[in-house]
User: What shape does this take?
Amino acid sequence: MEDVKFGMMVVYPLPKPIDRVYGLVKRIEDLGFDSLWIPDHLTFPGASGFTVEAWSVLSVIAAKTERLQLIMGVTDPHRRNPALLAQTASTVDLISNGRLVLGIGAGEGMNLDPFGIKWDKPVSRMVESIEIMRKLWASDEKNKFNYGGKFYKMKKAYLDFKSIQDSIPIYIAANSPRSRKITGKIGDGWIPILESPDTYKEHLKQIKAGAKEARRDVKKVEPCLELYTSVIRKGKLPGSGNKFAVSGNAEEVIEKIDQFVKAGVRHFSLMNMGPSPKEVEKIYGDTIIPYFKGK
Assistant: This one.
């Protein structure tokens, strides 16, 4: 079996004080998780906690970790010009010594509507943003470029420093047929949410179709999944029948995750719903992750 990766999502809004987040990061690195994911929100209505700027937090996390892959999961192309987004991503990649993945999607109302940020033609804008960022990561003062797109215009554009990775991986949050096909054509990874094993298997076919159309090797697109999870060691956990989440005791969760793996998932972004968050981390670290790493 291909290697299966497990990451933990820092669930927004963040708990106070912010040091609690850094404690979480240290625990999951010590427990053998592969990645740390953080969402990029301006606000998170109706929830307690606080919503601080995600790239700033990720920069600190990058300096406090050594091994974890760091995934922005996800930003959008509307709040930042692609030049600023490319520079920001390159900076975090530099701080982390080459461990950044840039997750991007078409955007969502909670981050845009209250602030008057336009998000017309969001998928097309995202595609242009990705194209520009890759050009910027390949640029330097001797290799400037012009760009005349529908949404962005650039003249003699370049970045004057290099990230550690030649081109930072871009994973696309795609939850529609069109965006899934685009992901297969241009993405380095696919990040869906609210999938059952059956729907995931079907939707992955659209990723493969996009890759085939672009004459790409589909193995260059890492199939990920944002997944809610609740785990106890033994016994029964109420409400564990949801097809879009994995919950129950450790044995039941392994069985449910295995169904997603068989459907094609290779990188999980876990959203920890408890009932005891630290215990969930430990169960994954000492039981669930070793099971899949050993297969």
